[in-house]
Amino acid sequence: SEYINILIENNLLGSDSIRVDKRPEPLFTSQPKYPQIALRKELEGEVYIKLWIKNDGTIQKAKALIATDNIFIEPSLNAVMDWKLSPAKKDDKFIDVSIFVPIKFKLPKTP
User: Fold this and answer.
1) pLDDT, tens digit, 9 for 90 and up, residues 16-71
2) Quick one: pLDDT at residue 11?
3) How far apart are CA 105 and CA 79, in angstroms?
4) Which single residue of 38, 42, 62, 107 has CA 20 to 30 Å from 90?
5) Is 53 in contact with 60 (CB distance < 8 Å)?
6) Helices (H), 23-89
7) Spatial separation of the C-alpha atoms in residues 38 and 43, rounded to whole Å
8) Cα gap 109→49, rounded to integer Å
9) What is the pLDDT of residue 110?
């Protein structure tokens, strides 16, 4: 998906504070619902989210750190809370980590 590519391109699939042997990798992601008001106003935007990932790969918590417009925060958080990732690994043990994730809202292209 576009989000996975963004994560990989920006090297954001790592821990923000711990060196790991194996970074979390997306197993399932869902795209956020584009807010209707943003569509009507033809707004695009980004939200940068910090995810806390448990040692089983589930998302424990998500927090929006920066948003180009607050209208994009709720759909971004709702989407990432459904994500499933492989757990991070250090010294052959699965560990809790946090990562940063950019969520981009781009208007659909019209022919």
Assistant:
1) 556 788 888 889 998 999 999 999 999 999 999 999 999 999 999 999 989 999 99
2) 55
3) 12
4) 62
5) yes
6) 36-40, 73-80
7) 5
8) 25
9) 74
Reading the block at residue 3, the tokens are 């989000």
DSSP class of residue 11 equals T
* Radius of gyration, CA atoms only, the chain: 15
Tell me the C-alpha to C-alpha distance, in Å, between residue 90 and each of 20, 27, 85: 5, 19, 16
Biggest distance spanned by C-alpha atoms of the chain: 52
Cβ–Cβ < 8 Å for 28, 101: no
Say if residue 8's pLDDT is above 90.
Answer: no
Distance (Å, whole) CA 34 – CA 66: 17
